[in-house]
# Entry
Amino acid sequence: MSIVTFRLTLSSLFAIGCLCLTVPTIAQEKTTETNSQVASQANQKKQSPPKESAQQKPLTDQQKENYKNFEALLDGVVLVGNFTTKGQKTDKLRPERYEIKSVKKLDEGDYWLFTTRVQYGNTDVTLPLPLQVKWAENTPVITLDNLTLPGLGSGFGARVLFHDNQYAGTWQHGKVGGLLFGTIEKKEKDSKEDKDKKGSK
# Structure
């Protein structure tokens, strides 16, 4: 199977993944359609009033601190690391790179909006991804279960935790899955690559 890493530019996934997802290669012509569909879903989720808003408890001081630290941790960063695939040799690890521009808590449940940059082949787009984040004390964990992404398929799953400028976890797409891990690095503003792209416009 031909596999490429879906860049959560967690953007900042990803997280992660998304910030944290590995997906089959898709045709270039689907990129614009997929971008529009995901962005539309993210906007709808962001604008929709929480179904249980009346029952939501006020944030504790610890939760406020956790949210603040998480936003700062993934503000303008690149996740640089490797991923493995179950059943394949791990002597030569596959590199991965996720650029995350920002993360922001949404009103609904445990969802956060990851503004990510997706790069592979000739594709370079920015996508807003609403992802569920659970907490183990003060440690954030991206939690995906059997997620469907328009134009990309279904059966996506992941558990990715962030701690001490590092990330680690698992990814799943149907029957294919594996591990991912690496470091969280601050992205330099106006990198040479970005300047070259601006100059070519």
User: Anything to note?
Assistant: The chain has one domain: 3-200. The radius of gyration is 16 Å. The helical segments are 31-47, 61-73, 192-200.
